Amino acid sequence: MKSIFPPLPVKMQRRLDAIPELVDQVLPIPKRFRSGLPRDVAELSRLLTSGRGERNGSYMSEAPLLSAYLRYFLPWNVYRLIRLLPALPLSLNAGVITDLGSGPLTLPIALWISRPDLRSIPLEFRCMDRTAAVLDAGKKIFAALISGDTKDDAAAAWTIKTVRASLGDPVRFPKANLVTAVNLFNELFGELPRTGRSPQRALSIFAEKQARLLSALSLESGSILVLEPGVPRCGEFISLLRDALIAQGRLPLAPCTHADPCPLPGTSASRSDKGDSKWCHFAFTTADAPAALRRLSETAGLPKERAVLSFLLSGPVNAPAPESDPASLLTVRVVSDAFPLTGKEKRPGHAALHGRYGCSARGLVLVSGKKDGIEALESGAQLRLAMKKPERRDGKSGALELEL
After folding, report:
1. Is the Cα torsion angle 281, 287, 289, 295 positive or negative in sign?
2. How many CA atoms lie within 13 A of 90 on its CB side?
3. Core vs surface per residue 144-167: b (16+ CB within 10 A) or e
4. Taking all residues of the chain, what is their mean pLDDT, rounded to a whole number?
5. Is residue 319 scored above 90 in pLDDT?
6. Strand pairing of 306-317 and 218-229?
7. pTM for the structure as a whole
8. Which of 363, 302, 297, 315 is nearest to 335 (CA)?
9. What's the CA gap between 369 and 63, in Å, rounded?
10. How many C-beta atoms lie closer than 10 Å to residue 392's C-beta?
């Protein structure tokens, strides 16, 4: 079994725990304003969700909102990324990383913490955002983060260049080995209609446009990483983006185990024969998040017991497809939480089984087994399960039934 969210090593945990204090050291706020920080965090959260229509384009230039972002959203976004990045197959021997909507350099900060194997590799980061203040803040935080590692001159291998620009503005720098976009697109497709005759079509057109842009910024031999909040609308966008990138010859590397149609599109009947709305997303407990960050979250009325995300890593153009499973086995990516399978028993007198949904080249899979075994599986775990004859399908979801 392979995990997509491996436990944090001790050194990585210490660096993560130090982020809130590091932000305060680099960009201190007067004590008289600190008491209002939880209120500012709650207000920024509202503007990013239910209050989108009230948000102006320069909201990140406002000092209280920028401070709230740096002390709440930046650490949480870094946390999500460092739980994920170590498990991703990022092929970076040298070259350029273009980070769209970089904000306070969230991606470079998380990559530095979570991938020490990359610190000595000559990488040039092109960090794009429309707000100069947030880019400047990120540069200061990143410089402070790596200052303790300059003794071995490893920090000299990375170059950070910030570019003030909006998504879609003309760019005049080399195509990238890796193009990234973290929590960017949901701010844009949030304005698309969610009701009417064709809300899915509007999102599909948006996803196709972004796929063309991402691919145009990447070398044919390069990769593309997109990460969004793990809510249904974002899962739907990720699935549509996956379709659009496959059409350009860029097969998914993660979390997908295959390039066949997505069995978790997160939509209504417009893309799902059975009309269900399962979407691809992954969750993990936040017990190892910085204590100071969890305290701020609770004070702001935004406690987080779990972090949830949807993501896609797409590979080079026309790269060879992964080898197929043998007929007797099927590779499955666990997606859902565990739940009891009411009425399904191994034999009379035995406890009901539990299950979790998963993704495979054969479509949606229902993995069943004893409660302890099913609950012990991590979200995102990759399994190879035995195929049995005759095949069985779940009457409710249509999923292929496999036993753990």
Report:
1. positive
2. 27
3. ebbeeeeeeebbeebebebbeeeb
4. 89
5. no
6. antiparallel
7. 0.92
8. 363
9. 52
10. 14
